[in-house]
Specification:
With 471 residues, the chain is of the alpha/beta class. Helix content is 50%, strand content 8%. It is built from 20 helices and 9 strands. It has helices at residues 14-24, 38-42, 50-55, 59-67, 81-91, 99-112, 123-133, 141-147, 164-172, 187-190, 195-209, 216-232, 252-263, 270-291, 307-313, 328-340, 357-365, 388-401, 421-439, 448-466, and strands at residues 29-31, 150-154, 179-181, 237-242, 294-299, 301-302, 321-322, 346-351, 376-378. Helix 9 (164-172) links the parallel strand 2 and strand 3 (179-181). Helix 11 crosses helix 12 (216-232). The longest helix has 22 residues, at 270-291.
């Protein structure tokens, strides 16, 4: 019987162990998409407790605790840090076979050197030990990033953000500290379906761009100004969170009219919202291409399903799921329009519904143009899919339909400084998958040098070459 989570966790052969320990494990981390708070990085935030570091903002854990019958008081409520941690420890034994069980113990081991299993009997001891270590300087926000060998981190930032924390951090960044770069996330500029909130947002965008926005063309100008500002601050990456791809036919006069009427108090129809988003998503994509950025599209969530909890807690609190909207025809129309104009930027597509896996893997092949290796990327397993099964499915289908060797690898997509072991988790799965092919005679041992290089490339080198972070 194999020990639980030893140094060869997930590695089922000598070949897998050699690929991981000798090659993948040593590579730095480029975390090109996350939701870390830039202020916490800039101020080198020190965490008051493991609860703040571990449970604050973690939707995965919140959903598990609710499923285990834990009252909201101990999840997002006013319970003490110890009470919340105690409820999480009570939940852990019920997460067996859920990826949270692996992630929890991987984080305890890699960050704190704790090999005990978390459960109600060990909870107080683990809570106290973690909190004692969190008082040490090496357990600050940047200390944890150094511990995990993070080289670059890209936060997620709205066009109206001043990027002041990025500026502050860059001025005092130490030689061994990772670079922190902004990533452009203009979703609120498209959210015309919520007209009251949208009008308030346009006022803020107008102030940040220092231009009065009274028309749709003013909106485009303001976004271009902010896009340029982000570029000057090192941004080379956009991220678009969309429920589906928008590629409706529209006339310019229609879009201008929809914007004008919405700003005057009109509630646009579903068809008008779709046309407006089609127009603006196209404009944003051309900005990305003109600046030479990489653009990411995270599509497919059905958000805020629980109205009662949304009214109590707001968005992003663990009440989202995967949607099942048809996507392929709109996606190909969108990419084809940009490609036909020579304005299709390097692109990464992440789907949330695994039913779309093969469709996305084949879709990106339609728009590879030979200009850049792996110009069109199918992103790693995202959100509900960033676990062993989802990662293996993504790697296998990408191998069948594209070039796994050109894949830019893993990211955290997390708000937690303890999520970096997900890179280790991914790399172990990758090495075991490739080693399994070698062991079964599906890959030649004569090419072991090339295979080792492929592992290092997927872990780090491909991302370094793909993203223009060093110019």
């Amino acid at each position: 019987m194999k020990p639980f989570m030893d140094q060869d966790f997930l590695l089922e052969s000598d070949t897998a162990r050699e690929l991981y320990h000798g090659h993948a494990a040593k590579m730095p981390i480029i975390d090109y998409h996350c939701h870390l708070n830039p202020r916490e990085v800039a101020e080198d935030h020190c965490f008051r407790s493991i609860t703040e570091l571990w449970l604050g903002g973690d939707h995965y854990k919140w959903r598990a605790m609710r499923a285990n019958g834990v009252d909201e008081k101990y999840i997002t409520g006013d319970a003490s840090d110890w009470e919340k941690f105690e409820k999480w420890a009570e939940t852990i034994p019920y997460t067996l076979r859920n990826p949270l069980y692996h992630w929890t113990h991987l984080e305890l081991r890699t960050a704190f050197g704790i090999s005990k299993l978390l459960n109600p009997l060990t909870a107080r001891e683990i809570f106290d030990e973690c909190n004692e270590k969190l008082q040490l300087p090496e357990y600050s926000a940047r200390g944890l990033m150094r511990r995990y060998n993070v080289e670059v981190v890209c936060t997620t930032d709205d066009p109206i953000d001043s990027l002041g924390w990025h500026e502050s951090y860059e001025k005092k960044r130490g030689q061994n500290d990772p670079r922190m770069l902004p990533a452009w996330r203009p979703d609120k500029a498209m959210a015309i379906e919520q007209p009251v909130a949208y009008r308030r947002y346009i006022e803020k965008l107008s102030a940040s761009a220092d231009i009065e926005i009274t028309s749709y063309q003013d909106l485009i100008t303001a976004l271009q100004i902010r896009h340029g500002y982000f570029h000057e601050h090192g941004c080379r990456l956009a991220d678009h969170g969309i429920d589906r791809f928008f590629a409706d036919d529209y006339k310019a006069v229609e879009i201008c009219d929809i914007f004008d009427r919405t700003m005057s108090g009109y509630i646009p129809s579903e068809e008008e919202v779709s046309k407006f988003k089609s127009a603006l998503l196209y404009e944003l994509a051309t900005m990305n291409a003109d600046q030479g950025w990489v653009q990411q599209f995270h599509y497919g969530p059905l958000r805020n399903n629980n109205t009662r909890q949304f009214n109590l807690l707001g968005p992003d609190t663990g009440f989202d799921s995967m949607d099942d909207l048809p996507t392929a025809r709109q996606m190909t129309r969108f990419f084809n329009l940009l490609d036909s104009e020579g304005r299709l930027a390097k692109t990464i597509v992440y789907n949330l519904n695994p039913a779309h896996n093969t469709m996305v893997a084949t879709m990106i092949g339609n728009f590879q143009d030979g200009s850049v290796p792996g110009k069109m990327q199918w992103g790693s397993g995202w959100w509900f899919l960033d676990q062993k099964d989802g990662i293996e499915r993504q790697l296998n289908i990408l191998s069948l339909q594209g070039l796994l060797s050109r894949f830019v690898g893993m990211l955290t997509d997390s708000r937690s400084f303890l999520s970096y072991p997900r890179h280790e988790y991914f790399r172990r799965i990758l090495c075991n998958l490739i080693a399994s092919d070698i062991e079964r005679g599906l890959l030649p041992t004569d090419e072991i040098g090339r295979i080792r290089q492929m592992v290092e490339d997927i872990s780090y080198n491909n991302a370094r070459h793909y993203f223009d972070f060093w110019t």
